[in-house]
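Changelog-linked ticket: zinc ion example.
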Amino acid sequence: MDTRKRNVDIEVVQSCGTHYNQCHTSVVTNEIQQIIPFTWEQVKEAQHQDEEINNIINDIRNHKKYFIKDNMLMKKACPPVPVIPKGRIRSDIIKIYHDTLANGAHFGRDRTINKIQQRYFWPGIISDIHNFIKSCLLCSQNNPLRQKPPGAFKQIKPPDGIWQLLTMDFHGSITPTTKNGNKYTALSNEKRTNWDEQLPFVTFNYNTTIHRTTNQIPFELIYGRKPILPFDQQQPLVTLSQDPEHKTKLNQHLSVLTEQPKATILEQQRKYREHYDRYRTNPIYKINDIILVKTLNKRNKFDIIYEGPFKITQQLGKTKFIVEHIKKHTLVRQVTIDVIIPLCERKRMD
Ligand SMILES: [Zn+2]
């Protein structure tokens, strides 16, 4: 892919003049593409070479949203603005009002749209601006995602009974392995230092508390009776009775207890998935896709949030990829789907 079209460092030394003045823009660029300044005469000329615009001009009475002023097709708006013909003037305009420090300074979508619509019009102007900003490298690298990380929820079939399904979160496999040859890291959300002392209590509390997903107390699922907690009132006299039916009763009780959580788990999964998937993208990446990778060790607040661009060179699993930096080919990394974002390809407008 030709990356030169994506990312252009442009600096406008002298910015564009106001409407109906001659526009003298001098541009410094370190890439091939640059903004070519245009005059209103050139816009008029280009208008007359544009078939769509000519059709409107020749039938202006039936196009109530337009009018002609000084031989230029204008869109009725507040203020009225010239209609920009197809071609590179359109992309130059977006570049000026988004990329350049003095006019746009990489402000977001709504501000850029507003700024350009105050000055120009063309059919599809909003989607063109959307695409331009979505494909802007600097914006992608620096703007935090205001949406959930990508990837839709994958449902796990509820188990038929206790101890039939154990899950834990882990990270890996990592290459190279650790000094001890370990490939995986187990993850825990709790940040406690005295885990050894805390763990039995945490486990006990977890097991004796009602679980939102199963709507059951884990202790009861195993022992068939309610747990007695240290602070619970207890009978001063404990009698141990022998019940010949105990085993049958326990089995009946347990089978009721294990059937009910299955339905509850399914319902909880449905609710959770609905919440999880809402507003979440589920991108599918292919080899050669261009992506950005979340900066791992941000040293300060203003470091870029995403590094790159990288190209996907290998897929190792559903969520694991090998990526190579577009320019520094020796920079190769293994990444997981949650730390990458797609870099949109910029549509050609000329
Ligand atoms: Zn930008």
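Closing comment: Example verified and attached. Residues 1-32, 188-192 have pLDDT under 50 and may be disordered. The first strand starts at residue 10 and ends at 14.
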